[in-house]
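Kindly go through the following sequence and its backbone structure tokens. Advise at your convenience whether the structure tokens fit the sequence:

___
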Amino acid sequence: MNANELKGWLSENGVSEVSCLAPDMNGAARGKSMTPALFSSTLDNQNLRIPEATYAINVHGDFTMNEFVDETEKDAILIPDLSTLHIAPWAKDKTACVICDGFSVDGAPSPIAPRQILKNIIERYNTLGLDPVVGPEVEFYLIKKYKDTILEPEPPKGASGLAEFGQHAFSLDAIDEFDGFFETLYEFAKVQDIPVDTIVHEEGTCQFEINLKHGNALEVADKLFLFKRLARHAAKRHGIFVTFMAKPYADDCGSSMHLHQSLVERETRRNVFANDDGSDSEFFSYYIGGIQNHMNEAMPLIAPYTNSFNRYQAYMSAPTNLHWSRENRSVGLRVPQTAAPARRVENRIPGSDVNPYLAIAASLVCGLIGIENRQERTAEFIGQSAEDKRQALPKTLREALGQFRASEILRDYLGEAFVKTFADVKQAEQENRSSVLSPWDVRYLMVNV
């Protein structure tokens, strides 16, 4: 889309405002809003700017400064990716949104921008003649609107006027209870060209899963980023909240973001994870081997909060290790039983609380390291792996951050500036969390000690 086509598109759609979105470290939408005329003019003079430290804002809203994030808050230039231009269907005034990439004033891509980190990994695959393909499954809970942040969440009332209780896995009637919300969700997704595939009710109380159609890794990450935003707006329209928190209920299942992944040749679009006879290829073995060898080092990218680690519990529909197996949902790396053209691995470790760009980048970079260093996978695990102590995941964010900071190979692939800045952001969040009273503190300590 050139400048004239853009002006025509804005005019034809009656756009009165343009929001420029910059995904931060936690996957939140930062940026600026402006008139269509001003937005059009910024494309010519590259005058759309934002402090580079925007990419280092932590989840409680503070900037995290270090030697790579200048305390003078120098500018980053935002360059809109016009292929992501879309209408925000929830806005009262016609608003267009576009995802932007950050660049320095000398034209270099930002070394800490999450979207750029994923683009860098995809480019390394492209130099090998390969395209990563990703298909995500995103779980979330619908919860009652709340004002008291100390209280635990509650399920909202459905169309029947009753709040859901107990388990309703795969229940269609339970989905119908929130038919209005899901109709709005589909409507918003259609406007934004987000290919929502299927909806199922998961094991948790008022927990649902949405599958997005598989595709190009960057395009899928963009769709996931936008989907989280539109789901929150759809929920608000119906007087409820949606949460992508990994473990909102202590005694209920956590919410995951399973990532189905494969690699195809750029020229032929052939899936390189399978040989001509249908057997697993070396590429497939090395890819899984890379994830097994390096996912623990990359763990903060797929389990970014203290709460994220509450999800990894035996027999709670979440993995506790990096074993791989066919048609076995108890392991971290499941290989679905498919025909050769659809050969793929499902990484079941990421939670739904992730930044989509960084979670996808984490899985892809570990697989890439495995391929480039010919790292063999372990033998297939047979049986229920929930209590197997081998290939175990880190137990806490503190432990995971230690491995992440110490990983020389991740610094090589992701860049020193990104690894240091991301780890500093997560450490600041962890320190902030430890200074805040939790419901456990209030319940058990306030009047008892």
Notes: The first strand starts at residue 17 and ends at 23. The mean pLDDT is 93.
